[in-house]
Specification:
Helix content is 79%, strand content 0%. The chain has 209 residues and is an all-alpha fold.
Length: 209
């Protein structure tokens, strides 16, 4: 895999990680209600869910490429259309409220982990995102699809866990920061939409890697 591909993927991961969403709010609420440890356990649950999504996508894409080379091109254009739709939805989405007094019901840590993992696995937007995003970073001409996936999911989990792990440790202070700075969320939203639009354009025009 080229440095350009890894750098672009890392940028996309960073933008996704710092943009407020359900995962971030779940980690924050658990951290406020039960302490930093519960927040970190939530982060671990999300990481396991993301890894399962990535491996499922890798095995499915590998079989698809072997059975029908044309399907690779079709999947590229379908992914470009989906990413363009994601960019549009991101630009028009409202900012998420951050409640510093959020009180999630307390639960055993294993249940916190399970809820985070299952919630991630059953999230249809996450499933569609992996189908749309991964094909433009995986190249069947560069060797094992599984090997490439393991590299990408490692990068994704390192960046995502670093961001959400910091939120888990900061707890209420992060919630106060976000709730008092609505413009910060707006900037994040437009940056993420721009990343989605750029990835969609890259897919539609084909890849050099």
């Amino acid at each position: 895999m080229s440095f350009e591909t890894l750098a672009l993927f890392s940028l996309a991961c960073l933008m996704l990680a710092i943009t407020p969403g359900p995962d971030m709010i779940y980690v924050l609420s658990r951290s406020i209600a039960q302490g930093p440890l519960a927040g970190l356990v939530s982060v671990a649950g999300f990481a396991v869910g993301i890894t399962c999504h990535a491996l499922a996508a890798a095995f499915g894409l590998a079989q698809l490429f072997e059975s029908s080379p044309l399907a690779y091109d079709v999947l590229q254009y379908a992914g470009a259309a989906y990413l363009a739709w994601m960019a549009f939805q991101t630009f028009r989405s409202p900012e998420l409220p951050f409640l510093t007094n959020a009180k999630a019901p307390k639960a055993a840590l294993w249940r916190v982990f399970r809820q985070a993992c299952i919630g991630n696995l059953l999230n249809p937007k996450v499933i569609l995102f992996f189908i749309a995003l991964f094909p433009q970073f995986l190249n069947h001409q560069d060797g094992s699809i599984l090997g490439q996936t393991l590299i990408l999911v490692l990068i994704l989990n390192i960046i995502g866990s670093a961001v959400t792990g910091t939120i888990a440790l900061l707890g209420g202070r992060f919630g106060t920061f976000m709730s008092s700075r609505p413009r910060f969320q707006k900037v994040q939203k437009y940056l993420l939409g721009t990343v989605f639009a750029g990835l969609a354009l890259r897919l539609a025009m084909g890849r050099s890697t």
